[in-house]
């Protein structure tokens, strides 16, 4: 098949990723004792809420035809890759945030999972940005990628400090 996703469907995948992040950070915050880590997880959860809203704004801004039209991908490479990334995202492939957090044995595990979530999100959003034709939407997604990269950096610093 030449076409697989509409712009609306692609953006909904991004919203779903953010919803998983909101759930993960909210539940993870409840599981840790360290006050500073709780604050970090709360901040990251709030960021995921803001990202979800930005993707919803992009969806609302789509024209009626963009909601029906499909992404131009004559070889189905980008759509296949994006679909695979969505399905293999850490929470989708492991049964969701609650399922993963049920296996947590400490703060290091929480940070490891959060890092995997952020890495998967960066890859997914980068792929998404390649599929978006609207320049303003592409800039918005690029800004969200930078925020996710900052989240990753914050989490990595926390994990390295915890391992010392």
Report on this structure:
With 164 residues, the protein is mainly alpha-helical. Helices cover 80% and strands 0% of the residues. The chain has eight helices and no strands. The longest helix is centred in the last third of the chain and has 29 residues, at 135-163.
* Low-confidence runs: none
Helix % is over 70%
Q: What summary fits the major beta sheet?
A: none
What is the arithmetic mean of pLDDT? 82
Q: Identify the overall geometry.
A: elongated
C-alpha Rg (nearest Å)? 16 Å
Please tag this protein with its features:
single chain; 164 residues; mainly alpha; elongated
What is the fold's blueprint, element by element?
Elements: H1 7-31, H2 35-61, H3 64-68, H4 77-88, H5 90-93, H6 97-101, H7 107-131, H8 135-163
Helix pairs in contact: 1-2, 1-7, 2-8, 4-7, 7-8
């Amino acid at each position: 098949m030449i076409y697989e996703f509409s712009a609306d469907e692609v953006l909904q995948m991004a919203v779903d990723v953010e919803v998983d992040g909101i759930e993960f950070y909210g539940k993870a915050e409840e599981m840790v004792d360290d006050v500073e880590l709780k604050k970090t997880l709360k901040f990251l959860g709030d960021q995921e809420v803001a990202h979800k809203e930005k993707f919803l704004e992009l969806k609302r801004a789509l024209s009626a035809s963009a909601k029906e039209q499909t992404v131009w991908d004559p070889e189905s490479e980008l759509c296949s890759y994006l679909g695979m990334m969505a399905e293999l995202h850490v929470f989708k492939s492991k049964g969701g945030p609650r399922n993963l957090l049920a296996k947590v044995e400490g703060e290091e595990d929480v940070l490891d999972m959060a890092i995997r979530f952020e890495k998967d999100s960066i890859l997914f959003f980068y792929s998404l940005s390649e599929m978006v034709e609207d320049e303003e939407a592409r800039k918005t997604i690029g800004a969200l990628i930078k925020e996710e990269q900052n989240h990753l950096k914050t989490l990595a610093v926390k994990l390295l400090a915890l391992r010392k």
